[in-house]
Amino acid sequence: MNRTTISLLAGTTALAAVTGFASISTPDASDAGTAKAAAQLPVERTSLLCPAPSTSDLAETTYTSFTPVTEGTGSDGRAELAAATAESATGAKGKGKAKAAKPVVTPKEPGKPVTGDTSGGDAPALVGTAEGKFAPGWTVQETTEVAAGTGRGLLGVNCTVPDTEFWFPGASTAADRTDYVHLTNPDDSAAVVDIELYGKDGSLKSEVGEGITVPSHGSEPILLSTLTDGPQADLTAHVSVRSGRVGAAVQALDAKTGGDWLTASTEPAGSLVLPGIPKDATSVRLIAFAPGDSDADLKVRLASPTGLITPVGNETLHIKAGMTAAVDLGDLTRGEAGSLVLTPTGTSVPVVAALEVVRGKGAKQESAFIPATGPVSARATVVDNTAKGTTLSLTAPGGAAQVKVTASVGSAGGTAATKTYTIKGGTTQDVELPVPAGLKGTYALTVERVSGGAVYASRTLTAPVDGIPAFTIQTLPDDRGTVAVPDAEQDLSVLQK
Questions:
Q1: Residues 6 or more apart from 279 whose CB is under 8 A from it?
Q2: 368-388 pLDDT tens trace
Q3: Which of 221, 331, 319, 224 is nearest to 270 (CA)?
């Protein structure tokens, strides 16, 4: 790229990529004399944050990094994940400080996954940056297998973009649960964070969650039970940042059902989609919260392979303002692919929501979470897929949609493959995946909406251990790999007036 002519828009574009907001306000294009149509250009820099995976000595963790090939990028760039190094506010040294000079994962080229492994309970949180050709759509998955103990099973999380606000319906301080909010700070100055908890009766008053300091380039795990006076199930945790930015995720460990990572719900909205409930789910629990001043009444429907179905006995859900509501939906899917669709029965009131999903029975149960997520408006990617343990669910809650799915080359070999699907309106489909020929290692799946209505997606990854149906679910929100940038020449002419 020619750097001799620089507009303010270049800085704005980079800022959009770093903060995770891939959009820029543009002039009104209706006046052709003063503005030109905005162009979609690849972002030039992206940050991702991975929480510390586990405190178990039995933990085996794999990190997988992947950037889809994006038209319009240059030939230069770099990406790496390295250990968070700062001393935590509780006095514990940032784990992995000695390893900071050597990145955990360093991708070589877009279009090919790269993996890195670690074991034990002292693996640190990671801070990652991608620039140039590695930035658009950069995706990193942290997958951990724990053989025994609290949280045993399979835990997975997509490393997150730093932000200033997160909602986690589905958190808990119940006796069987050990929930931590992991906060990671990518910046050169400390971040100050507040954590609020809301139960069935409203806000849980506590000053302990106010003004939490997260050191620069450091990470801080906060045990939720230390923020309350007594145990309480079905909580909504609200993380808000007074200064700086953080990545946030909840590690929800259950003594009976293993547990998993709970990632943030999409921002409060009147209608929500929670895609990809496993066919063999034995229990589905919906947790929702209305953060405003008005009660919410929602219509509850299941998008099945044949259309939208209203579950008998759970046709609607009433959520009081400022309070968390929860309802057991049982074995909702009954052996078929399904996604939950929540819409207002009357006046639209913004809500957040998540599902806690259980597979198996008795002592052989395992749990995971599905937060409400945004649509794949252009493209989304999920990594660490295996030849036999991956299920991709695609949902079109409104009109029919055409979707292209690309399986990358394998991390250790294989040939990329692509398939196109038509998803009927109001349905969920677990699609037959285009597995790479000659696959060695794991591979990435990139989902692109070609035409039609909105599409929502999630991936279920399974790895049974000793009869336990271990699994983890990741949603696929849009990767925001491009930004809308007004014509540079027009921008400069405006500045010259």
A1: 333, 335, 336, 337, 338, 430
A2: 999 999 999 999 999 999 999
A3: 319
